Amino acid sequence: MELEHIDQSAINNIGEDRLKHYNKILKEQVGELDHEILHVENGFKHSYGIPPFIEVSPATIMRNLAADIFSLQESLHALEHDLLVFEDMKQLKEWLKIVKRSLAAPRYDDMPF
User: CA-to-CA distance for 95 and 84, rounded, in angstroms?
Assistant: First the structure.
């Protein structure tokens, strides 16, 4: 239904009942589009780990993206540091001992009290 292709005189002569019918159809179409937008938005939120109650806007997405970038940069720096430490065999062996001891040590949060 494209009213823009009808000339002005035809639009002026549309009966009241016909106009109500067009409005009803348009309202239904708006409802369908709103539902589709909600479905796409929820899929986007789910795909990117955004909680359902958070409003999706360019500002929100950019804040989340900046936080993700920062977190990845921190992880990258930690990995680069670890690689440097692992280049020194003595430091690597010491680190492995610490990890082994921490894995063997009893954890109090696992103990039933």
Answer: 12
> What is the Rg, in whole angstroms, of the alpha carbon atoms belonging to the chain?
31
Q: What is the pTM of this model?
A: 0.51
CA–CA gap between residue 93 and residue 106 (Å, rounded): 22
Taking a C-beta distance cutoff of 8 angstroms, is the pair 25, 1 a contact? yes
Coil, strand or helix at 90: helix
Residue 111 DSSP class:
S
- Cα gap 39→51, rounded to integer Å: 14
> Where are the chain's structural domains?
1-53, 57-104
pLDDT digits (tens, 9 = 90+) for 27-57: 999 999 999 999 999 999 998 888 888 888 8
Measured CA to CA, the distance from residue 48 to residue 99 in angstroms comes to 33
